[in-house]
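Example 5.3 — Cbb3-type cytochrome c oxidase subunit
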Amino acid sequence: MTTFWSLFITVITLGTLVGCAALIIWCSKDLDGVADGEDMGHEYDGIRELNNPLPKWWSYMFWATIVFGAVYFVLYPGLGNWKGVFNWQSSAQDVANIEESRQLLANSDGIDQYARELASANAIFGETFRKLAYKPGSDELQDINEIAKNPEAIKVGQRLFIQNCAQCHGSDARGQSGFPNLTDDAWLYGGEPETIKATLVNGRVGNMPAWLDALGDDGVREVASYTLSLSGRKVNAQEAAKGKTRFVVCAACHGTDGKGNPAFGAPDLTDNVWLFGGSRKAVEDTIRYGRQGVMPAWKDILDEDKIQLLSAYVWQLSTPQNQ
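Solution (predicted structure tokens):
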């Protein structure tokens, strides 16, 4: 943190404490010269205002919170770059990448609370992950489809999913606009167990180019009509016919039949499953402006056993008949 921001935070924090203390002192004084319990000379809707002091318990409570706040900022960080007497920190604030974070965790001296909690969690649950993901008495991972048959492993995989994937795909894994539904059989890159694991390990980067400059507004509308017709939607037949001739620019990825290509992550346009929405406007916007989607790689975040369990959970979501 720069010196400016450190001073800024310190002044704001201490100023708030001092301001609260000044306000309590001001409210505790008799500034109108009226004795306690006497009429203040104010009336509203037949109600007279009396000069009643602040309740003692109320004043003492706020004084206690102010004192507590002052002591807290002396002992713990909270005033800019001041680390506090205890030199405590919730996490490493100067880590620039995952590798630095791992090295810091390996050499942690116990001050970093996150490092302590992570080490404690690994000590408690590490063996559980290993037992569920690896073959008994072996360093070889179990097949994903075998792990998917273990209810206990699926429960652990579900918790891993909620912790790491639900932010984008939803707690029920049904996705949202721009984030795939993982419970159906419409897979951009393929839904085989090892393909799902590869997606988790290495991530995916999808790129649908913008075609407005190449097609123009009329061309975008015509290609949208043809694209919608592939999934059985009612469209303007003349527009769809013209769009079919223009679809050649799309066929390189989606195929001449529009059924997509998992090698490119190009979706099937005939199944009426739309990642960014299936309305005419949404489809036209996709063609006009393009789409960019990123699935982060988890190989540097989750251990191999956790990825194996997570892969099994995701795979069984769309293949319950295999369980």
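Remark. Residues 56 and 304 are 60 Å apart (CA to CA).
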